[in-house]
Every structure is written in C-alpha cells, then in structure tokens.
Amino acid sequence: MHRRLPRLLFYSLTAVVPVLGALVGLGPAASAGTVAKTATAAKTGTASTVSASPSAQAAAAARSALKQLVVGQHATDHPVSGHVRMINGLTQVDSTNWSGYADDNSGGNTYSKVSSIWTEPSASCTSTESLAAFWVGIDGYSSSSVEQDGSLIECYRSRAYYYTWWEMYPSNAIQVVGSSVSPGDSISSSVVKSGSSYTLKVTDSTHTANSFTTTQTCSSCADTSAEWIAEAPSGSSGVYPLSNFHSWSTSSASVTSGSSGSISAFPDDELTMIDSSGSVKAQPGSLGSGGSAFSVVWDRSS
Predict the structure, then answer these.
(1) pLDDT, tens digit, for every residue of 59-94?
(2) 77-109 burial, b if ≥16 CB within 10 A, otherwise e?
(3) What is this structure's pTM?
(4) What is the CATH number of domain 11-21+65-298?
C-alpha cells in the first residue's frame, strides 16, 4: 500500500549541497602544494601565516559550510506506477530522500523518546560531491517540527569527511559538533522529550570528542512520529547524490509512546529511497531482533 507523505525531508540538510558548491564544490581545484592562510593572534593582535594542506583546507571549508545551513523544503513521497516491491513494514513508502523506518501516528500515537546505535559506515567517494546522513529523531515525517541527531558523511573531491550533529525546531539549523568521526566508530543517538524540553545526545564511544548532550526547548513540537533514517539531503535543485555508504546497520532501536518498545511495537512504515524513475537508491531490510534492528543497503547515488 502506498501513501503520500506531505512532509519528509530532514530540514537543515536541504541546503547543504548548494552551500558546499558555493564554498568548496564548484571552484577550481586547489594546488598540489601547501596553501598559506592568515591567522590573527588573539592576544597580541599580530598576524601570522600558517601553512595548510589542500585536504585541511577542504575539511575547514566543508565544516564551515555545514555550520551555515538553513531551513529548506521537505521532499515528498513519489510512488512510481508499476514499481512493486515486498515491504515488510505496516505501510510501503517510496521516498526520494529517506530510507529506513518511521513510527507514525496512525493510531493517535505521540512519541517522547527515540534511540538507536550503529557503527559508522565507510564511504567510497568519487569526484562528485555527495552526502549521506544517518539519524534518529522525533517529528519530520508528517510535521514541520524536527528534533533529530546523528552522523553525516560528506564526499568532497574524492575524500570522505565524517561528522556528528544535531538539529532542533524552530531554528532548524544544523549544529555540527564533531568532525573527527571515523568509519567503524561506535555511535549511539537519542532524542528524549520531558515536558517542553528535548535532550539530544550523540555518543561516539570510539572518538569521544565527537560526543555531545544538549537540551533544547520547544512548546509547539508535534511529537507525532519517530524515525531511524539514512538520508540523501536535498537542495533547491532537488535531491543530490547519495554518498556510497555501502550499508548502514542500526540496532537496539527503542521508542517510547506511553510505553517503551521496539520499532515494530507501534505503527511502523518502511521507507525505500528511489529516484524519479523508480530505481532503488537505498533499500532497508526487514526488522530483526524483535523489531529493533535493520540495515539499509546503498544501491546508487542518484
């Protein structure tokens, strides 16, 4: 069964590729040698020159671009006529930018906690700029409010950069915290609501500098869905290439709506990411471990 999703896209990442293009993705390649940059000494007021390799320059530019992201537009469900697959969730959903699972409010559910753990995937990058976000969150599936956190891969000039981040309504501005995430890192992610407060927490047990906990306030958030998602961010030109993350596996997925349970304890939708012609870009597998674990397999970038 298909249904149309009125609002799907993860807010803050929608502007990422246009911003990256402006700052790092569309300009000429840096020279092979080191590049001088000027830094002002905070205490003395004197200027000093520091050498930075092109890769360090790229990392700094990419981090700067992510920090400048603003609210974008949601994508929508685009089922393709005649394109049929076996989907194991309560509802089959084709999405242009999400792959994974979402618990919805078809039974009147509201959600106060979502969590999961995963091992950070390793990306295979090409010269084409691309992105892949992995996150858990409350809202965003059928509401304009979003309370989300997780990890992010950016492929820039054939190299992968890895981050941790969070995002909170109403500002919907991505907050990048860690930039030293590596493939294989053990990541845990959660969003917990208490009254009008939301505690967003990501722990990188392997490289602890990427870990954070922040508490934010929202009195108008809908709390009508919970998600475990691999995403291809979008921009003003549409959905941008999805970084080849090979496979993302999340486990120990838990959600609270009055009582606590696994993904399958509440009305759950399985989302398959497709392109405009219906070709699969990222495919979730069946829920395992009592409805608390699944994998998303990358198929194509666009």
Answers:
(1) 787 676 555 443 223 344 433 333 334 344 468 889
(2) bbbeeeeeeebebbbbbbbbbbbbbbbbbbeeb
(3) 0.79
(4) 2.60.120.700
